[in-house]
Design goal:
Radius of gyration: 58 Å
Structural class: mainly alpha
Distance between the termini: 170 Å
Shape: rod-shaped
CATH class of one domain: Mainly Alpha
Order of helices and strands: HHHHHHHHHH
CATH superfamily of one domain: Tetratricopeptide repeat domain
Number of helices: 10
Helix content: over 70%
CATH topology of one domain: Serine Threonine Protein Phosphatase 5, Tetratricopeptide repeat
Number of strands: 0
Largest sheet: none
Oligomer: single chain
Length: 274
């Protein structure tokens, strides 16, 4: 008896599921028909009815994404296609979902994302010629056109580089003008010496070699009040001074004698020593 009731319950559950599945299919069919007639709003309602009964129904998600795409609602379309590949039960469903995601990103000119979407589509179906063509086109557009954010950064960088270049040029011009004024001043200055390494002004050394030589001469020069020891065979300053004093005394004695005995007559000129 228990087994029979259980069996009846299973039969009833299967009947309910089959009925619900049939309703879902009918809503999807209605939506497809409405798309063909151009009634996108009515088609969207039909697909949403199917999803209210089965939120993970990949067919309803995919077709709802197509409806958003035709209505140019690209953000909603990319979300539906992402959900489709997530709940898809076969590689073919995943391939179609990624392919359509690539088409959405191409419309939005997000070529990097489009390249990735087409690449994922080819992983699930490498033999699809249309996907390969779109993949190659997205790669080419990515090379030729940068994303808006990167382009804006490049524009700011170019403006900054141009401003820095103008400032550098202005500084170079000022330096050249100052150098030219200095050269003109040097040419007009008659006291400017061409070779400061060899010439001297006011008896002062002009280079390090002359200064060192002067300091060395000053060091070697004996102080005036310092007594020098006489070399061998020469008289000391004290001996010379004594001789001079003795000669002066002798000359004074002779002069005194001459003055005491002066004679008349013409003086004899002494021979000049020059």
């Amino acid at each position: 008896m228990k087994n029979k009731l259980f069996y009846i319950f299973i039969i009833g559950a299967l009947s309910f599921i089959q009925a619900q599945e049939g309703e879902i299919i009918n809503h999807i069919y209605d939506g497809n028909s409405e798309v063909e007639e151009g009634a996108l709003i009515a088609a969207e309602k039909s697909y949403r009815k199917a999803l209210s009964l089965a939120p993970e129904k990949s067919t309803a998600l995919h077709n709802l994404g197509n409806t958003h795409f035709l209505a140019e609602q690209y953000e909603e379309a990319s979300q539906r296609f992402f959900q489709t590949q997530k709940f898809a039960s076969s590689k073919e469903e995943k391939h179609r979902a990624f392919h359509n995601m690539g088409n959405v990103f191409m419309k939005k000119k997000e070529y990097q994302k489009a390249v990735e979407a087409y690449k994922n589509a080819l992983r699930n179906n490498p033999s699809d010629d249309e996907t390969r063509y779109n993949y190659a086109l997205a790669k080419e557009l990515l090379k030729n056109e940068k994303p808006p954010e990167e382009q804006e950064q490049d524009d700011k960088k170019d403006q900054k580089d141009q401003k820095n270049k103008e400032q550098d040029d202005e500084q170079d011009k000022d330096q050249k003008d100052q150098k030219g004024d200095q050269e003109n001043k040097d040419e007009q200055d008659p006291n400017k010496e061409g070779d400061q390494g060899n010439n001297k002004e006011d008896g002062e050394p002009k280079n390090e070699g002359d200064q060192n030589k002067k300091e060395k001469d000053q060091q070697n020069k004996p102080p005036e009040n310092k007594k020098q020891a006489p070399n061998e065979g020469q008289l000391s300053p004290q001996q010379v001074q004594s001789l001079l004093e003795a000669m002066n005394n002798q000359e004074k004695k002779v002069q005194d004698k001459v003055n005491a005995k002066k004679v008349k007559g013409v003086p004899v000129r002494g021979k000049k020593d020059w």
